[in-house]
Specification:
By secondary structure, the protein is mainly beta. The chain is built from eight helices and 42 strands. The N terminus is likely disordered.
């Protein structure tokens, strides 16, 4: 369907719908900001139809996700049919970069999720799921007096998951990475310290790497203190439609982007032809041993919109969402409903089919050996539609909410084991409620800990719950009924202790004892004003919170808020310092943790703040440090008057701090951290 037509249908369908209070424009500013600034937009319709689509989702919640249930059948995992070139045939098995060896590989050899017996079997089940979806949309729309004409499909696209984020608690605390400590430069704020993630800004201690996702270009800038010189610029127009993010692995650069192809197809019932877009995600890898002359060494394609990715050692794991508006007329038209990776359709034994499916989206995941970047190590797909992703060093968890808003009653969690570039669906489980984001999940000693907010559709109220799941994702411990009427805004896990924030008028920070997985217990509850959207362990006894300050009586927004919690005694957590930024009402880092630069070892963190000063909208980059006696100390406030992109990112190399405006006419401003952040140089 044409996007303009789709948008028009959304508008028409929503015209007569009374918008609930919690979905009125003033109430969804943060949602829109999140979609526009923090989320990598999948479909172009997102940025135009979010508010209208959100309303439709409430009245027509059809895209309920894959209702995967555990199956007693164990199907042996079969690797995707590979290219039979001599190079692949001779490739030896390699040790896992994460330390997982043959025992882990053997453990992942079986999957509890069945595969279809054939493409035809898959076609029949997906077709039935689509019919059920349409029937539910029409029934819901009819109940609300809405003239349905395909608008719910657009609503599903516009109301997709907000962000993907997680954290691993195995490390002592989330200080700077080993590279930061040894070489003195900032790195991407990661979900798990041992698992790399893509970003639009990176540096390696000598060079700044910048992806301009608006102009679809990539720059390499040599940064020597205040002296900044461009060594290379890549135009990606011939390779991809737009850049999502990238990785730098030693002397290897991998850029991930979107690609689409248009084709004409005839309707089965008449002679009308229509334009069909085929959406793919593409990775292009370069040898950058010579930073002035990047040389392409391989590329791969994968059907579907980009969801997320992870890099563990020399292997990149790529996740896409493959979705077709319409199925082909006949099962034999395989390319109409079977996803392809690197130009080859996945075989039926690499497609995992839940026992009951209610969504016709596919999660496609592949492994790419960056030493052979034109080949796929393995690829699998599951008929599901995940929203939140959390990756430990051995497993990736995909959470899919069943329904939306007050109709949400459960979340399904899919567990994928990964090692040596191989992927195997290994478990599936269901819990009550839905996740705030992927920080709500954490793997520790083989168990998965999850916090959710559950809604009671009859009472129109909420409660908060914690679950502990074993390796097979069976529930072995739980806490229910916490903070009735509130919802979870942030969570973090630290060994045997979990922390999460709920909010309605005040911000209770709960601490939970998880030392006995079968009997988790609430240890303490601290109530303070406002709430924290993001939590980060600053050291082994301090927890940093970034969020919003609010009036406890009226709920009015009073500005961004920094909180430092002393967690040395989990039963008596104390907010030892807070800092309210009254001029700012939003920060990208609230919803996208990679927007924050943070290095507790260097005692520095920074993020971009959005607000209003003297009647004018402002975007400033803010840098802080923390003193146990004085509290938060503001080291830098820097903005650019001509910053039309509204985007600023931070990085540091040695004692030089760089504020980067990455879009359009890229600009970089350097500051001397040894001289009270005095401005020292510029690059335009």
């Amino acid at each position: 369907m044409d996007e303009n037509k789709m948008l028009e249908q959304i508008k028409c369908a929503a015209e007569d719908v009374e918008i609930p209070e919690h979905l009125r424009p003033e109430a969804i500013d943060d949602i829109i900001n999140t979609a526009n600034k923090a989320k990598k937009v999948h479909r172009p319709i997102y940025q135009y139809g979010l508010a209208a689509a959100a309303c439709l989702v409430v009245v027509a919640s059809v895209w309920l996700g894959a209702n995967t249930q555990k199956s007693g059948t164990k199907t042996e995992s079969v690797q995707m049919a590979r290219d039979t070139s001599s190079a692949d045939a001779a490739a030896p098995a390699e040790a896992s970069e994460s330390g997982a060896g043959s025992a882990a590989d053997a453990k992942a050899a079986d999957s509890p999720i069945p595969t279809p017996g054939s493409y035809e079997d898959l076609y029949e089940k997906v077709a039935n799921a689509k019919k059920q979806q349409l029937r539910q949309v029409e029934e819901s729309a009819s109940d609300m007096g809405i003239n349905y004409d395909g608008a719910a499909g657009a609503a599903e696209g516009a109301a997709g998951g907000a962000e993907n984020s997680a954290v691993q608690s195995a490390a002592k605390y989330e200080a700077a990475s080993d590279m930061q400590k040894e070489q003195g430069f900032s790195t991407t704020n990661l979900q798990v310290r041992a698992v790399d993630e893509g970003d639009i800004i990176k540096n390696d201690g000598q060079y700044l790497y910048i992806a301009d996702t608006l102009d679809n270009t990539f720059q390499i800038i040599r940064a020597d203190g205040s002296l900044m010189t461009q060594t290379a610029e890549l135009s990606m127009t011939q390779k991809m439609d737009s850049i999502y993010e990238f990785y730098v692995t030693g002397d290897t650069l991998t850029i991930i982007g979107a690609s689409s192809q248009a084709s004409l197809k005839q309707n089965t019932s008449d002679d009308v032809y229509r334009t069909v877009l085929s959406n793919q995600t593409v990775t292009v890898t370069y040898d950058i041993r010579d930073r002035s002359m990047p040389s392409e060494i391989g590329s791969v394609t994968q059907d579907g919109y980009y969801e997320t990715s992870r890099r563990n050692g020399n292997y990149l794991y790529l996740f896409t969402n493959y979705y077709k508006d319409e199925l082909p007329a006949y099962p034999a038209q395989y390319d109409g409903y079977i996803p392809a990776v690197n130009g080859r359709l996945l075989t039926a034994d690499c497609i995992y089919l839940p026992e009951y499916i209610q969504d016709s989206s596919y999660l496609v995941v592949s492994g790419i050996d960056l030493r052979k970047p034109d080949q796929i190590s393995d690829a699998k797909t599951v008929v599901t539609n995940g929203q939140h992703y959390y990756a430990s060093t051995e497993n990736i968890y995909v959470a899919e909410e069943q329904g939306y808003g007050y109709d949400t009653n459960k979340t399904e969690i899919l567990k994928l084991h990964y090692a040596n570039g191989q992927i195997t669906p290994s478990a599936v489980g269901v819990i009550r409620g839905n996740l705030n984001n992927s920080f709500s999940m954490d793997e520790y000693k083989g168990n998965l800990r999850v916090v959710t907010t559950a809604y009671d559709s009859k009472a129109q109220d909420s409660t908060n719950e914690l679950y502990v799941l074993d390796e097979s994702l069976n529930i072995i411990g739980e806490i229910k009924g916490l903070a009735k009427g509130e919802k979870i805004y942030s969570a973090r896990f630290f060994g045997d202790t979990g922390y999460f924030v709920t909010y309605r008028e005040t911000d209770p920070l709960f601490s939970v004892d998880l030392s006995d997985p079968a009997n988790p217990k609430v240890m303490g509850e601290l109530k303070v004003t406002g709430f924290s959207n993001y939590l980060h362990f600053y050291n082994d006894h301090l927890l940093l919170g970034l969020g919003e300050e609010t009036d406890p009586k009226t709920g009015a927004h009073l500005g961004l808020k920094l909180s430092m919690f002393d967690i040395s005694d989990p039963e008596n957590v104390v907010e030892v310092h807070k800092y309210v930024l009254k001029d700012y009402n939003y920060a990208d880092a609230l919803y996208n943790y990679k927007e924050m630069l943070i290095d507790p070892e260097k005692n520095i963190f920074g993020f971009a703040g959005y607000g209003n000063r003297k009647g004018n909208s402002v975007v400033d980059y803010l840098v802080f440090s923390y003193d146990p006696e004085k509290g938060f100390i503001n080291r830098l406030v820097y903005g650019e008057e001509d910053n039309e992109s509204g985007k600023l990112r931070g990085a540091y190399i040695g004692n030089t701090f760089y504020v980067i405006q990455p879009f359009g006419e890229t600009s970089i401003t350097s500051f001397d951290m040894n001289d009270k952040f005095t401005k020292s140089g510029t690059y335009r």
